[in-house]
Protein: Aminotransferase-like plant mobile domain-containing protein
Amino acid sequence: MEGTHRLRDEGDGAARGKRPDSITRPPELEGCRRGEAGGGAFRADARERRMGTRSGRREPVGKEEMVSDILLPHPSLPNSMCLGPRSSESPAHLISCEANRIPFVNQNLDLTSWADCLRAWPNPPEGWVAWYNRVSKTHYATWETIGIADALSLSLSPLEKNENILKTIGYFWSDALNCFMFGHGPMTPTLLDVTMITGLDIASPSPSAFKLPKVPFTLSSKTECTSWGAYLKRYMKTKGPVTEREHTAFLNFWLEHFIFCGPSLAPTKNYLSLAYELAKGTRLGLGKLFLGEVYRSLQLMSVKLFSQRTVKTGGPWWFIQLWAQLYFQNQIPDFPPLATCTFPDADGREIRCTSYGQALYGLPGSRLIPKEAAGWFQIFFQGLSNPLFFPYTESENFENPVSFRLDSFADDASTRHLFSIMIRPCFLPVGMSTSNRIIKPGYESYQPVVVARQLGLGQVPPHFFLHHLTASRAELPDILTGQRCYTFFDALAIPIPNNLCFTTTTDGFETWWTMWKTHAFRRALGPSLKQLDAEHDTTHQEQDGPEPTQTDGSPFTFLPPAPVVLFCRNSPSLKQVIMQGQPISPKSASKSKASSGPVAPRASTQARKAVRKVAARKTLKRKAPVQDNLQGCDPSSLLTFDPESIEPAAPKASEEPSLEMVHGPLQRLKALLSSSVEILVENPEAIKGILDEIQPHLPVTLRVKLWPAATLSAFKSGVQSARQRITLRRAQLPLRADIAEKCQRLNEKKTALDAKTDTSANNAELETLRKELESLEEKVRMTKQLIQEKETFIARSREEAQGLTADLKTDLAEIRALSGQLVTGKDEDDETEIAEVDRQC
Structure:
């Protein structure tokens, strides 16, 4: 056994060798020492008697018994626990049904089948960071309140794709158990991983497509916004406050593109109602929905690989990559210490990572290289000699998630409460749209019992309680079934001791897993590596292992591989289980399973028609009388006792119970049941006594419907707590009114503050005025330049005029001087004078 990891030192009152007082042992375990070899078998036999798994009948299991079966004492570590339920049965039947359905066992490996699967990748498009900054200024406090702030911060950074890991790890997925079957043991993403990597809420009520409100406004259709870039430009505003419509569009973008990564590669309305509910500040268990979608994507992938079709499912493969890199970090060269990694903030600055998700986002990726892909396949196939099952031992280096602090496990009751949710089985929601014809509302099974070591608990041979209860996955037909499905295990409160020490040890699990590995990993590794890497050279001729045999030496029988889960094919539907309705006969159950099988959201048209036909037949059966419904059914599957222990043979279907014998007791029962529920849960013995008296004389359907009345004591604590809460709420009405009044005043002050702090309009006006001022200043500068040029021209002109004046004076004086030298008079006068003289002579 491996060593343990201790969160806190033991308290002074912790006694070695004793189970913590906060967890009570069931009566059938009294007198059984923890170290005895027969203790596990005794526990399993007791559980099987209660559930009737050996005789084919399912008897009611009380919540106290289920709690004691889930958290078991560790045989050698006093302050550690094991995760149950524990099984003493051989896994041969499960292996026979499901071993050949794991893709690497029965399918040829073809990396080209993954061509379109990883196109939906959560890298931020241009403009997303600016939109995040704008919306976060107004709604970041709301995001923290509803538990999506950590996951939203991951959208600020691109994520490099590691195709070699993603295109090989899918071949090891078992959709029957919802886990990877590696060579060193089963592993799967858990609610603990979702909390530590994404910080999403797992404690709030699970979202249901039937209960989500109708969005009061419409967004553009896919034909109008054909890409995420067009969607962002259409709905991202740059001015004014962030409206509810813009906030909803922002969260719809984030859910579709960054979280669930739908295969459409374009905006859809599949998560619009969920985005609107989150925008209103409603707390929802988004973490459970996210893990359910992870399981659903892997299940659809396995169906595609089984049918040798191209994988185009899309889905949150980014989370599977982060999960695989975290758990297989020792196999990655130069893997950095996560506490030293950096992450870009909203302004693009590199800051210290505050969560495992941010640290893992910065790891380098890798394009598909056949040699590296074959290397990863070999790691997954052969397994690790020292696998890392619990990678969160350094969680104190990260501030997030704030709601779950492993470093204060002993002192933080809320952390232990979240841990109790992580370790209990449940039905995970999938599908958030009731109008989508392909992706319909349904559930996926969460069974952490098979990966207890990932939760810091000891691993025992697992008993798959949910598989004996109902189908591992199915669609949900209506709001009532969905509501009861998602809350089926909510009342299962598991007390967690505050001195719990985490461990990765096992108790009897090696034998269970050895049988699994012998049967599932019997094929030679070399041919598989050759399919992935044509240049792979095996060092020696590898041969397939011998065909497995039974303990008596006879050949082991494998059922023919099928695209549907075979292990729980005879289980009743979930609606029959949670509604206590009339079951269908085994014959019709097998037909129903054959038609609707895994009820995959992407069912073919022929399968959907078959489901509708079966539903129509069920509707007709419900309209028939009770006596007709009982024909063809096995009433022993509904009884809480063995009929053979009372009489040699069961009564014939034609024999009707005598109503005269039960009329009086039924009247007394009616009178008692008319009392308030507080009185009923305080004194349920009278009701139980009447039921024990008349039960053999009641019809089977009436016994089933009256069964909850016999278990009223199980609801005593819940009713008392609810009544106390009601009383406290009524006593706090003045306080609530005072709080409401103060909140109203606070809202008014916040509105005034927003008006003061929202300077976007004033900033726009100021920018306009500044631009106008710059324009005016440019005009003034140009005018001054023109004035200066004119002044210079005028001065130059004056200087030139003065020069010309001086030249003019000089020339005038010269002319005057020259003019003084000229002979005055006219030639005609002189000629006249000469002629006169000549005449006189």
The two ends are 173 Å apart (CA to CA). Confidence is low (pLDDT under 50) at residues 1-62, 581-656.
